[in-house]
Amino acid sequence: MFLQTFLQNLLNGLQLGSFYALIALGYTLVYGVLLLINFAHGDIFMVGAYIGFFIATFLMGAYALQFPLPLPNTAIFIITLVLAMVLTAMVGVTIERVAYRPLRRKGASRLYVVITALMCGLLLENGNLALLGASRRGFPELLPKVMYTVWGVTFSNLKLLVILTAFAVFILLETIVRKTKLGMAMRAISYDRMAVPLMGIPVDTVIVFTFVLGSSMAALAGVLFATVYPVLEPYMGALIGWKAFIAAVIGGIGEIRGAFIGGFLLGFVEIFATAVFPSTLRDLIAFSALLIFLSIRPTGIFGVARRTKI
Amino acid sequence: MALLEIRHLGIYFGGLRAVHDLNVTLQGGELLGLIGPNGAGKTTVFNMVSGFYRPSAGEILLEGRNIAGLSTHKIAALGIARTFQNIRLWNELTVFDNLGIAQHHSLGYGFWDAVLHNKSYRQNERRARKVTEELLELLGLHHCADEYPKNLPYGLQRRVEIGRALAVRPKVLLLDEPAAGMNPGDVEQLMELVRWIRQEFKLTIWLIEHQMRVVMGLCEYITVLDFGETIAEGTPDQVRQNPRVIQAYLGDEDVAHA
Amino acid sequence: MQRYSSVILYIAFCALIVMAAQAGWIDAYMQLVLMYVGINVILSSSLNLINGYMGEFSCGHAGFMAVGAYITSILNIWLFTSDQTLSGNVLSGSNAIYLFPVTLLIGGVGAALAGLLVAVPSFRTRGDYLAIITLAVNYIVKSSIENIQAIGGARGFMGMRKVVNAMTETVNLPWVLIWILAVAGLTIVVLKRFVNSTYGKGIVAIRDDEIAAEIMGVDSKRLKMIAFMLSSGLAGIAGGLFAHVLGYINPGTFTIMKSTEVMVMVYLGGMGSLSGSVLSAIGFTLILELLRPLQMFKWVVIPLLLILLMLFRPEGIMGHRELTDIFPKLRWFTLSKEKQI
Predict the structure, then answer these.
(1) What is the pTM of this model?
(2) A136 vs chain C: nearest CA distance in angstroms?
(3) Where among B137, B169, B201 does a domain terminate?
(4) A123 and C303 in contact by Cβ < 8 A?
(5) What is the CATH number of the domain that holds C118?
(6) Averaged over A67-77, what is the pLDDT?
(7) Is residue A202 helix, strand or coil?
């Protein structure tokens, strides 16, 4: 019985961790390349979910536009996912172009860019609130929910999908960063931004690519999240964004492995904490764990302390 | 009792022996030199003495007390001040304030005094300002007291940095390549300044420098490092002729002709 | 006489306001706006000490507000009221007048101690990592309060109005307004004296080059501790005052949004400029009031404003300068401290 509860919690932790990991990956990619905490990232996740919502409902005929052929729901899901990723990536790139790049051009101190990022996030949240109102939206059920029971542990196919996606994304990103030229450029920029353009590498292009990757991952997480928890509201990205950020930091911000491991670690901490303590303490425990962890190991699990030379 | 005694000092970064078995004694009042090729570990030694690094081995005895591993500000309070290879002045503060802050350890008042503007604050603040003014006057920096270091020519910045180190009221002054990047005219002035400081403030000075003219001209006794180890010690003449030294510099002409 | 001219002027100014309030020339709404201005001045300048002078990125100021707010409110209700849930009816309401500043101070001390939660990590980390820690502390404070049912949990509690009434009944003056004006004035004096002293300037040295500061003898740990405790302590007092303006209190008031509001004021005014913080606090509060009909768009306009600020004038209104740098004539009021020691 205990084993079953444990495995159940383990699976829940894996699922929650998958969401955190997917979003944390976006934070860590941008930080690795720009040394910028893109505080707007959690809200990109929200944008992805909302864009997915509108695409899905549109395709299902909600806006009185019927397609010649009725599409099967699974097809709608795939189209929604891909389109949401593409469109959200465009949103991310636009923010980079309009808000971050001019500051980079001016050589503005990193602090100003961070503040701008924070403000962009608030803008997205409250812009959504102002434009679409406070009422929550229900994400349409696109994938049939099938429950499995193995060894007394129940889970749905959706949960499995989320976890497998997270792993797949991790492998994909690791491959890109370690085995492709673009990935190498990303790593080079994180070491020395000044020298890289001198070597003929288009820094702006690489940065745009980073944002594309990060934002589409966030959108992926957003659509999946909406599939599993079908209620959307404008502030849904805020808290989960902070949590994913915590995960990225615990893992060692700038390291992809770190974001991944950190995401799952946080997922487990939260799930197992709520198994033992009342659920209202969940956030408290998560943030306290962060505080304690950072006090012991300020650079995170995989983070490398940058030694100052004088 | 010697003023500063360094015994078997060593620091190891992982497998790298950056400094190994260094032994130097300063009785007080000397002008010592520390030279060696790039990467020999000279600045690392200064970093250990000033407290920025914690040595892996050995002792640093200041007036008999082992200061190895103490926090940097404590070591400053005990009487060790330094300048840096790359100037590290506070560019957001005026020259006046740069020297003022170096007196932090001897201010004599605290937070509540400052807030209440009580007698302790007023007296001590006045005294600290006087010290700064006198130093600026002595160093010929009075005219740029309200300037920001980044607006000053390089040679003046170096002088300000020395002034700041002097404001700490040290017993031992560590100068890390003070002549770096200077033109020959400035170098002459610098050498004059160092000699004068040593006399005026009765300081003990330890100098790292690459320009052999400066080292040979100023120092009474020189320690030569290579790959963290001491390969020679002695007076400038002795060191100049030491074959190991010449070899370490790979036939550096400065050594032979300085 | 000249040395304290600015203080005397300020006291006269406050006296005028109080008289105007009593006479009814300033109605309740304007008094409310004034009180918000005062509180924002305290918040903005106290945060400027950390984010501006010390160059850190603290985004959890509201957490310290909350600590002070709750401590002061609970103490006041317990001591001076008899019909609230938390009442202890320990002292008669007429004592509230004398002891209000005391409970405020206790709240401030509590908040200052909470500030240690951020100060201690700051010894080893800075920049981005410290920002996260401040965020976490903000959340932890808010979460903790939400979980303590005895003080109302997520719903909070009210009753501060009774305390204010008790004070007004003893002597009929707008007490909360008076205390806000007093604390705001004191805050400016304390901060100004601190950052203008050689001791306080060590904070700027830490911001500029902490390693050099340490090597030159600055006890950076101690300074950081003082700075953080002072900043959060003042925020706590502001929180206590805030609670008594509102009349009620709940954790939802002290979220990251509130911290962001304070940050906006600091960056708007200019990091490291006290006069900037004061000006932007005044301006920001007034703008917020003007935007009240556009409630929904308030949090669209504010971020947009700040983004534009970052793009075109990141130093804020005042940059690193003070009013006395732009208008040297004003030095007549403040010249004292610098040269006349």
Answers:
(1) 0.89
(2) 16
(3) B169
(4) yes
(5) 1.10.3470
(6) 73
(7) coil
A vs C: CB pairs below 8 A: 109
Q: What is the ipTM of this complex?
A: 0.91
Does the residue B84 lie in any domain?
no
CATH code where residue A177 lies: 1.10.3470
- CA–CA min distance B38, chain A (Å): 14
Residues 214-253 of C with CB under 8 A from B: 214-220, 226, 230
Q: Which of B106, B136, B169 is the last residue of a domain?
A: B169
Instruction: Report chain A residues whose CB lies below 8 A from the CB of B52.
Output: 310
Domain containing B48 equals 1-79+172-258
Count of other CB atoms within 10 angstroms of residue C4: 12
With respect to residue B139, please indicate whether it lies within any of the assigned structural domains: yes
Least CB-CB distance to C133: which of A115, A291, A310? A291
In a shared domain, residues B75 and B179: yes
Of the candidates C129, C144, C147, which has its C-beta nearest A294's C-beta? C129
Tracing tokens 């469109």 back to the chain, one arrives at A87
Number of domains in chain C: 1
Q: Is residue A142 part of a domain?
A: yes
**Domain count within chain B:** 2
Complete DSSP assignment for chain B: --SEEEEEEEEEETTEEEEEEEEEEE-SS-EEEEE-STTSSHHHHHHHHHTSS--SEEEEEETTEE-TT--HHHHHHHTEEE--SS----TTS-HHHHHHHTTGGG----HHHHHHT-HHHHHHHHHHHHHHHHHHHHTT-GGGTTS-GGGS-HHHHHHHHHHHHHHT--SEEEEESTTTT--HHHHHHHHHHHHHHHHHTT-EEEEE-S-HHHHHHH-SEEEEEETTEEEEEE-HHHHHH-HHHHHHTTS-HHHHH-
Tokens of A257: 């492995």
Distance from CA of B204 to the nearest CA of A (A): 22
CB contact under 8 A, A37 and C128: yes
Inspect the interface and report whether the beta carbons of C307 and A246 lie closer than 8 Å.
no
> What is the tens place of the pLDDT at every residue in B159-170?
999 999 999 999
Residue A62 pLDDT exceeds 70: no
Residues of B in contact with C204 (CB under 8 A): 90, 92-93, 97
Cα→Cα distances B136→A214, B97, B130, C172, Å: 54, 11, 10, 58
Q: Which residues of chain C have pLDDT under 70?
A: 1-3, 84, 86, 331-341
- φ/ψ of A231, rounded to 5, equals -105, 125
Domain that holds residue A265: 8-296
CB-defined contacts A:B, below 8 A: 7
Do B72 and B50 belong to one domain?
yes
